[in-house]
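[job 4471] stage=fold_predict status=RUNNING
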Amino acid sequence: MATPVSQVEQRVVEILKGAGYPFVQEEGRCRVERGSTAVFVSAHAWQDRYTIIELVCPVLNHVDVSEELMKRLNELNEKLYFGKTYWRNKEVWIAHNLLGDHVDSDELIACVGMMAVVADHLDDELKARFGGQRWREATP
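[job 4471] inference complete, writing structure tokens
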């Protein structure tokens, strides 16, 4: 019997295929690449009754935290419709969550597209100001 998480995972695959997005399925998630970054989409159980779709984009790695970087990430968080930016363990990420049990294809596609565009632009801006490596530079 399929679990709610596996049902949502299958729905994500169907939506991405239907939209014509090129993607790779890997270890319980889908990867949609754009430019120098990617959007990783996965499903997870939440509070024993919901399924969450988690979308994350690596923006930079090997970047030191600074007050200026944190101010810039906070400015972005005030403006972004899809995603929140954060620094953790020398990495900058954009992340967003959707309720997955009844996910709408337009909502998922808009979220994947906007996050990919923002992350692909943002990695250039932040690298120029704060150093670090883009995801594509660190991934063979």
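[job 4471] summary: The two ends are 37 Å apart (CA to CA).
[job 4471] exit 0
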